[in-house]
Amino acid sequence: MPATKQVLPTYQDLEEIIISEHMIKRRVKKLGEEISAAYPEEEITVVAIVNGALLFAADLLREIRRPIRLDCIRVSSYRNDTRSLGRPEIVHSLTIDITNRHVLLIDDILDTGKTLSVVVNLIQKLNPASVRTCVLLDKKGRREVAFEADFVGFPIPDQFVVGYGLDFAERYRNLPSIGVLKPHLQNPPEWA
After folding, report:
1. Cα distances (angstroms) measured from residue 113 to each of 51, 99, 110
2. CB 3.0-4.6 Å disulfide test: which of 55, 74, 145, 176 passes with 91?
């Protein structure tokens, strides 16, 4: 007897799409140009905050016209909730030396500012030549820590969004656009 296939959450779980796949592609290309211009001669050490920034970082790296070294850092702040749960924890740190290197930190979303603040402080203690930040989304309405990114893809309102790397309980990352998750689905899921 064949196994029953599980239906994966898709667009029907979204209240609305706020940033289309086409808009993302166009803005990522422009961000690549802006970043390339900001580092006219330097090699860039890119540090992506995973899992959220994985898709964004992969696409953005293809648009940056400079030599790049890549590392990832893993930070936990949401778990299975729609709100940040206090101080972010660094779960897995850097593996390459960033001393005297120009570091570009990439994240999916800047909301409370806590995650980027913690990671930037960690990076600065490792004596880089410079540190800049790039985020796909900037949700200023949720800021709790004074922090501004150097490069921003899109400002967004204070809504819980998923898609293009952003998740809820590790779901929806594979959607190619970004949308608002329906309110009734913003509770810890049965399938978590």
Report:
1. 17, 24, 6
2. 74
Q: What are 152's two structure tokens? A: 């921003």
Choice among 70-79, 127-136, 166-175 with the minimum mean pLDDT = 70-79
CATH number of the domain at 98, please: 3.40.50.2020
pLDDT at 103: 98
Instruction: Give the DSSP letter of residue 184.
Output: G
Is residue 6 situated within a structural domain?
no
Note if 111 is an active site residue.
Answer: yes
Assess if residue 11 is contained within a domain. no
pLDDT at position 98 is: 96
CA-to-CA separations, 178 to 3, 23, 33, 165, in angstroms, rounded = 32, 10, 22, 9
The arrangement of strands across the sheet holding 14-19 comes to 14-19, 178-181, 161-162
Distance, in Å, from the CA atom of 147 to the CA atom of 111, rounded to the nearest integer, reads 9
31 part of a folded domain: yes
Q: Is residue 13 part of a domain?
A: no
Check 111, 138, 150, 167 and give the catalytic one: 111
